[in-house]
Amino acid sequence: MRLEVLSEASDPRLLASVLALKPGHGQDRYCLPASMTYPPASADPLRVPFAVMAALDGPEGASGGERVVGFGTLDRHGQLEHLLDEPARGLLLRAFYVGRPHQGRGYGTAAARRARALAHALEPEAQLLVLCVHESNTAARTAYARAGFADSGARWMAQAADPQVVMVAALQPR
Length: 174
Ligand SMILES: CC(C)(COP(=O)(O)OP(=O)(O)OC[C@H]1O[C@@H](n2cnc3c(N)ncnc32)[C@H](O)[C@@H]1OP(=O)(O)O)[C@@H](O)C(=O)NCCC(=O)NCCS
What we know:
Layout: E1 2-5, H1 12-20, H2 34-42, E2 47-57, E3 63-75, H3 80-83, E4 90-98, H4 107-122, E5 128-134, H5 138-146, E6 150-159, E7 162-170
Parallel strand pairs: 4-5
Antiparallel strand pairs: 1-2, 2-3, 3-4, 5-7, 6-7
The structure holds coenzyme A.
């Protein structure tokens, strides 16, 4: 599993796979599909979109190449100014999901952990990777905790009735 930074220079077939990747039915309250979040992210110099790439196992264990299993963005701005006293110390993990057919296989946990290293590579001076996750999103909270994120105790009220847990992790050199 690895993360690949996306840009308009990326392979068009890779971008098409990313744009076709969807979270499951009913998960759109947690995360919008890349078809909606990739275009604005790719046009914003403060956001870095990435694909979660996983190896395809070929016959008898032979490598069968890779496929896109997830998507996310690292954001240098977003609501960071509301989440950190010093916004420049952190990056935000947003729009993150694993495509429905690929969920429950450890990709979300592994990708969230790798995102800490990617954030460090992008912003060596930053110290924290921050994310907001709905309190009811047990799968995501479990995956993030296993990836080294901790509940900061703060809550982000994007919608008044639906508080989100603010989780933070130290950036991780590779
Ligand atoms: C949340 C998400 C990223 C986790 O990725 P994943 O690859 O499915 O998760 P993992 O396989 O790493 O599983 C981590 C743990 O989450 C839990 N989990 C995973 N899928 C779950 C599900 N559908 N229901 C309940 N718990 C679940 C399990 O406890 C799992 O641990 P296990 O190995 O003991 O079973 C992914 O499920 C997803 O994209 N969900 C929809 C969109 C979303 O919620 N994005 C996050 C927005 S903040």
